[in-house]
Design a protein that fits this description.
This protein is α/β, with parallel strands linked by helices and 293 residues long. It is built from ten helices and nine strands.
């Protein structure tokens, strides 16, 4: 049964990748009706997160933002699945990179790059960097529990020569690349919720004490990497544009947690700009700050 479910799911993803846009969006509209009205997928978590993050919102504004989020979530769920199998031509139409030349600039200087993103808009756009940047590209991810899906995910994401690498292995891979004199660009989505025993730093984000990972900062300092933030905006339905903003060229000269604070502030700014496009269904604030009631 597990194998049959795997075959059906992969077939569905491949069909999504070849559907014309109007049919694709029709499927997404149906998914929205299911997850918002019928299932109510994590609705309590979504409403709680939006309410706490925007205490100035009225009940009507919270309701409007919640509904808009679920429409966006349906798109993201299908887009992320289809991205695994989209042709390069369709990827280029879906994910626009405004300033890819920034990678060439630092490549000429012999610099490694760490680029950071959050779960905002569609964060899968980094797949097009596989064939746009001169660096050896590492895409850091959290392995899936289902080994069949995990293997297929890594194969599909790596079809343009990206090195899809589990977080626990990225340090070792960067050391190997350094010994081989390879310049690297490493992409990390940094706003996941840390496991409680691995929380070492809290910050204020959207009016809430928030635990954050320090991995991107540690990697940047260890490998003296330029740090960029990948700011992604939604141009229209199914089309996203990303630009890279410099956080620091000199990570070893920054204060402790300075890099982390800077990328959190950028993400916070993006969320305030378009609240409905953040991944509110993730229970980001499940862990409470010590001593907080």
């Amino acid at each position: 049964m597990n194998f049959l479910a795997y075959i059906i799911t992969i077939a569905f993803f491949r069909i999504l990748a070849i559907l014309p846009r109007f049919l694709f969006h029709g499927v997404s509209d149906l998914l929205f009706l299911i997850i918002y009205y019928l299932v109510g997928y994590r609705k309590k978590v979504v409403v709680k997160n939006i309410s706490n993050s925007f205490p100035e919102f009225s009940k009507q504004e919270i309701k409007k933002t919640t509904r808009k989020f679920y429409r966006h979530l349906a798109d993201i769920m299908l887009e992320s699945s289809a991205t695994l199998y989209l042709s390069r031509r369709r990827l280029d139409k879906m994910y626009l990179i405004e300033n890819p030349e920034i990678f060439a600039h630092y490549f000429k200087q012999g610099r490694n790059i760490i680029f950071i993103a959050g779960h905002f808009n569609n964060w899968e756009g980094s797949v097009v960097l596989s064939y746009l940047v001169p660096h050896k590209l590492y895409a850091v991810y959290k392995p899936l529990k289902n080994k069949r899906f995990d293997k297929e995910f890594r194969r599909a994401r790596g079809r343009f020569d990206a090195n899809v690498t589990p977080m626990k292995q990225i340090g070792r891979e960067l050391i190997i690349s350094s010994k081989n004199m390879e310049l690297t660009a490493t992409g990390l989505v940094t706003d996941q919720r840390p496991v409680k025993r691995h929380i070492h730093y809290w910050t204020d984000m959207l009016h809430q004490k928030t635990p954050v990972f320090l991995g991107s900062e540690k990697l940047a300092i260890k490998f003296d990497s330029v740090v960029l933030y990948m700011k992604t905006r939604k141009i229209k339905r199914g089309v996203y544009s990303s630009c890279f903003e410099l956080i620091t060229e000199t990570p070893k000269e920054t204060k402790e947690h300075e890099i982390t604070e800077k990328h959190i502030r950028i993400l916070e700014e993006l969320i305030r700009e378009k609240p409905a496009y953040y991944l509110w269904s993730h229970d980001r604030w499940k862990h409470k700050y010590p001593g907080e009631v």
